[in-house]
Amino acid sequence: MNLDWVKIVLVMALKQECPPCLERVPLLTLAALEAKDYRGLNTQSQGLLCLVSGVGADAAQRCMDWVRTHIRPILLVNIGSCGSQDPCLRDTLISPCLLSHSAQDQTYSSVGCFPFLGGEAVRPITQGISVESFSEAHRADCIDMEAYWLAKGCHEQHIPFCCVKYVSDANTQTDLRQLPQAFERLRARMEDLLSGLFVRPVHDVSVIIPSYNRASFLKRSIESVLDQQLKVECIVVDDGSTDETSTLLDHYRTRIRVLRHDENKGVSAARNTGIRAATGNWLMFLDSDDEWLPEKIEAQCAYSRAYPFFSLLQSQERWIRHDKALAQKAYHQKKEGFIWELCLARCLISPSSVMIDRRLFDDVSFDESLPACEDYDLWLHFSRRYLLGLEPSISLIKYAGHADQLSFATPVLDRYRLASLSKHLDADWHPVFRKKLSEMSHYKEAIVRKGAMKRRLKQSDGD
Fold first, then answer.
1. Residue 152 to residue 155: CA distance in whole angstroms
2. Which of 113, 185, 447, 460 has CA atoms 20 to 30 A from the CA of 302?
3. Which of 137-146, 349-358, 370-379, 417-426 has the lowest mean pLDDT?
4. Beta strand spans in 337-456 (E)
């Protein structure tokens, strides 16, 4: 049984909790799995698999045993109903960020947000207790009999876990008799939320090339866009260049759109200018010293159609420095899925490799106060909220080693990463993620201080 196509597993306790939009997704019950009845897998649908575990801790643990044996998903999502004695939570969707058990010391974390574009807001809560029922000795924000055990299994297998529950009742016998009506409301709420898994068509793509005094490289970048198998809108933002850039761009005036800044404002401002002017519903960026292979855009669009739940995706790349191939280290290898924690340590997403749903820029843009590491800052924002897709072909060539490359020309890059970490720490509500942001901030601060001390010693030796 080949399940390599499964990227996301959605687990619910009962079939009655399954919203209509998931009817197109292969669905298996735990009973069928244990009977080795895999007829529900005859249709492979966009990387998604629904599992109906049944009710209770034992069913959830057996479900995780099957996942552990047969699948290696990039995310497991637990959806369904739960109970709460808090009247303010009734008839809402909640996403607990921590899941514990009244009889257990261990607490497991959820990503704390639903990493897709859905129409329904999900209310985050700081704690979700998975217990069979309420007791006076142990009151809880919410009660769910499966979520804790699914979170525990995912933690043990290093699988990112997300939990979204509809608060249907107060877990009383009176409320339980009203569950059929509650399931109707649950399905309607989940339908709105989960629609983001599917409604993400690629109609048009806009490519944005920011450039400042890069006339010697820019022609190669523009030609690599114009040579694409799929024709797109190409926007070049001349960020106040004083070299021959203007003359070069005049040559392409009928084939591309040119936007000009009167003065140099920086790469973030140039990209933001391009974003505002773009007409495509998907955006791509190309640094003016990089180039694409002709199949890049078509390959990423095809990958997006196959896995429409990815709001942003990137491709593999090849590095060239001084006309020689540069080997990538293991920690530079690109990953797919929920990669926020990996993005804390270093920038793992190349601006020239990504294709991004335009809607992601509705409430965020490149930070123009950062002269460098602006991409690190944006990827922290996106990777905290969305899954990252990875189209496997090598379709980007990145060139390095020239004097005006930002990573070489900007001293003490970690001070800008430190500023970004501080900003994200102020904005994040999740205790586990705040802890990781704080730890990385202290680490980067130590690096900056150590570097400053070395520079002072070097300067004093020179004097």
1. 5
2. 113
3. 137-146
4. 355-357, 388-400
pLDDT digits (tens, 9 = 90+) for 243-254: 999 999 999 989
**Burial grade of 341 (CB within 10 A; 0-12, 13-18, 19 or more):** middle
Structural contact between residues 205 and 189, judged by C-beta atoms closer than 8 angstroms: no
- Say how many C-beta atoms besides its own lie within 10 A of residue 47's C-beta: 19
CA distance 68 to 187: 28
pLDDT value of position 137: 45
In three state form, how does the secondary structure of 199-262 look? CCCCCCEEEEEEECCCHHHHHHHHHHHHCCCCCCEEEEEEECCCCCHHHHHHCCCCCCEEEEEC
Which H or E run contains 423? helix 414-427
Contact 388, 337 (CB under 8 A): yes
pLDDT at 463 over 90: no
Question: What would the two tokens of residue 384 be?
Answer: 């905290």
One-letter amino acid at 139 equals R
Question: Strand (E) positions, 262-362?
Answer: 282-285, 291-292, 312-321, 324-326, 355-357
Number of residues that make up the chain = 463
**Distance (Å, whole) CA 153 – CA 415:** 38
Q: CA dist 104 to 63, 64, 147, 149, 159, Å?
A: 20, 18, 14, 11, 21
Q: How many CB atoms lie within 10 A of CB 311?
A: 24
Which of 66, 25, 65 is closest to 46 using CA atoms?
Answer: 25
- What CA–CA distances, in Å, run from 75 to 10, 81, 196, 373, 442? 9, 20, 15, 28, 29
Tell me the percentage of the chain whose pLDDT exceeds 90. Answer: 58
* Prediction pTM value: 0.91
